[in-house]
Design brief:
heterodimer; A: 225 residues; mainly beta; Porin; 8-stranded antiparallel barrel; 11% helix; 65% strand; B: 398 residues; alpha/beta; 7-stranded mixed beta sheet; 27% helix; binds flavin-adenine dinucleotide
């Protein structure tokens, strides 16, 4: 039996109700993912005036493409655009969930010594959901990023054992990404998160290629939960 | 997949290269051992001027120990071979990748007085595809798993020619001298070549490939001890082939795995890969390489004529790339390692650490073996073979 679902707008947030209701109604009819993804892409383009922007969290993570040799780091500041509470009344109990639509500008570095360095500026727009009063949360987000990959073309090795990259090539690319994060509040506002991402490098001059990322980091929540 | 195979597969893929060296015992690089001086007044004969034979000779030369190399073919290098004329960059017809860190050259030369540098390509192909069930599959995300190097403007052959052979001296190598008999029964070793020449020495190091020894091209008198024969039986050196084709257009990815991605890590001792040989080279040409070893190479290595072989390769590529290969084909070069009379295959698969250690033990303090098959730290590689020959000299003069 389908649970009855009600929406409670939190007093603090003043969401753009029309857009929200569209999302909500649409989302009730289709699977969450399908309804959510196209709308996420639109969010960064909506006038900030329409949104009630509040810095919601800071995240700092160790980031590595899906490989043993790559390492990297990512930092981001999240802004909450909308937050609302959803109350579902089931047969036996009532469940409350907090939803948040956020966006998060991020800056990341990753690379593989002697092979490449990459700087990644990313704007991630996501949907986070969390049981009310619960420590754990999940989020699904889309990123639109710009990647500057410096590719090592030549490495000069000297016979005394020293070596260094002697020729680099800059390779700019767009880097859209799809991310799933899972996090937990550990102590007060501090939490840990892990994120899996699939990104696709769309190069201007070189062959496009996929990337899988794994990220592990700490998150500091600025907004009261 | 046994340990050896896993290491080998990992090395070929570049996976774990940094983890494995120094973990295992026999025939592995020991940075400090290069400085260790060897003293020996006798004379040493080295059979084979491949990586193992050259590095063994290099160590003897550094220590002013008398030696001579007998080589069956007209040149040194063995499975390290190059062609300068095919493309606008030199091409490795045998070993091509450096399955180790760039410091491996220092480890091999082991002499801080030697100055010089080598330009390498950090090899991390971006566009990785596989062909299976009649379809091309994309595996580009796998790119970051690759961690190897290649030579930029030179080859493995040039490394030996520039840095190792000058110390050995070409005068100490006798080419076109296939050895067919080693008599180690007397007080000195007597080595006979196919043209009837007899060479005498106090000790002999055999670096011929496993298949050359197993196929009985060298007659040992007395016969090899049973323990050695049993150890040799554990090694398998299947077929191996390299082909380079020039096309007027580049229609292929950086790497095309012919047996699917999983095949690389499977337990099968075989590989078939088409790859862009000009990747990160200073080249304006489209050169596609084919590297294949193991049973999957056998249909190709067994073909009678070059025409038949190139026809089969183009047909295969045409099927994948919708006729592009034949349309844009310009020329090719084939190196069939299985048909090289004194190599007879690719490189060693199987074998165990125990078998390798057994092969490294001297027989009657006169007969010794070295080569890629007997390297425990980096089997099936040039540096593994070279360092095996280098280290084995310590055993030989002990
Ligand atoms: C297709 C292919 C690709 C490879 N790719 C790589 C790679 O990318 N990277 C890498 O590190 N390794 C690679 N390898 C492996 C590498 O080439 C070998 O491990 C290494 O070169 C073997 O050196 P070796 O001295 O043990 O044997 P060899 O090179 O075979 O040397 C033995 C020498 O002995 C001579 N000889 C044999 N019998 C006699 C006789 N009876 N009398 C006198 N002389 C004799 C031979 O002519 C030869 O010159 C590849 C090998 C093949 C075949």
């Amino acid at each position: 039996m389908r649970a009855d679902t009600a929406v409670v707008f939190p007093k603090t947030a003043q969401p753009n109700q029309v857009l929200y209701l569209a999302l909500f109604t649409y989302g009730n009819q289709m699977s969450k993912l399908q309804s959510f993804l196209p709308l996420l892409f639109l969010l960064p383009f909506i006038s900030p005036a329409q949104l009630n922007l509040q810095a919601s969290h800071i995240s700092l993570g160790y980031l590595a493409p899906f490989a043993v040799y790559d390492i990297g780091a990512k930092a981001g500041v999240g802004f909450s655009c909308w937050q609302w509470e959803q109350v579902s009344t089931g047969k036996e109990k009532t469940k409350a969930r907090i939803h948040q639509i956020y966006f998060e500008p991020q800056l990341a570095y990753f690379g593989q010594r002697n092979y490449y360095h990459a700087l990644w500026a990313n704007l991630e727009t996501g949907w986070k959901w969390q049981g009310k009063g619960k420590k754990r949360y999940s989020s699904l987000s889309l990123g639109l990023g710009y990647l500057n990959r410096s590719e090592a073309l030549t490495l000069t090795t000297h016979l005394d054992g020293s070596f260094s990259v002697s020729e680099w090539e800059n390779r700019p690319a767009f880097l859209p990404s799809l991310n799933y994060s899972w996090g937990i509040r550990v102590y007060r506002s501090f939490g840990l998160y892990t994120r899996f991402s699939y990104a696709y490098q769309v190069y201007f001059q070189h062959t496009n290629a996929g990337l899988l990322f794994f990220e592990l980091g700490v998150r500091y929540t600025l907004l009261p939960s | 997949m046994n340990r050896e195979e896993f290491i080998k597969k990992s090395l070929l893929l570049g996976i774990g290269v940094t983890f494995f060296p120094s973990v295992f015992s026999a025939c592995q690089k020991k940075d400090d051992s290069h400085a260790a001086r060897l003293h020996y007044d006798g004379e040493v004969l080295i059979i084979g001027a491949g990586a193992a034979g050259l590095m063994a000779a290099y160590r003897l030369a550094l220590n002013q120990i008398n030696f001579r190399i007998l080589e069956a073919s007209p040149h040194f290098g063995g499975r390290v071979k190059k062609t300068q004329d095919f493309a606008d960059f030199p091409i490795d017809l045998g070993a091509e990748w450096i399955h180790d860190e760039p410091t491996v050259f220092r480890d091999m030369i082991g002499n801080d007085q030697v100055q010089g540098s080598i330009d390498l390509i950090p090899y991390n192909p971006r566009e990785i595809k596989s062909w299976s069930n009649g379809k091309l599959h994309n595996h580009s995300f796998f790119s970051t798993f690759y961690r190897e190097y290649k030579f930029k403007n030179t080859t493995w052959y040039d490394f030996f020619e520039d840095f190792i052979v000058p110390t050995i001296g070409l005068d100490n190598m006798v080419f076109n001298s296939p050895v067919n008999k080693i008599d180690y029964g007397g007080s000195r070793v007597r080595v006979t070549t196919t043209d009837g020449q007899v060479y005498e020495a106090d000790k002999v190091l055999v670096t011929a490939s496993v298949n050359v020894i197993k196929d009985g091209l060298i007659d040992f008198a007395p016969a090899l001890p049973q323990a050695k024969i049993d150890a040799l039986d554990t090694f398998i050196m299947p077929d191996g082939l390299k082909v380079f084709i020039q096309f007027s257009e580049r229609f292929y990815p950086d790497v095309l795995l012919m047996q699917g991605l999983s095949s690389i890590l499977s337990s099968e001792s075989e590989e078939k890969i088409y790859y862009d040989a000009a990747f990160k080279k200073n080249s304006s040409q489209n050169i596609l390489g084919l590297f294949t070893v193991g049973p999957v190479a056998s249909p190709f290595t067994g073909m009678d004529t070059e025409q038949e072989l190139i026809g089969a390769i183009l047909a295969e590529l045409d099927e994948i790339f919708k006729g592009k290969a034949s349309q844009t084909y310009q020329k090719h070069i084939i190196q069939n390692w299985s048909k090289e009379a004194y190599v007879r295959g690719s490189y060693n698969f199987e074998g165990t650490a125990g078998a390798a250690s057994e092969m490294l033990k001297g027989v009657d303090d006169k007969l010794y073996f070295a080569g890629e098959a007997f390297s425990n730290s980096a089997p099936a590689t040039v540096h593994g073979a070279g360092l095996c020959g280098f280290d084995q000299m310590e055993e030989l003069v002990r």
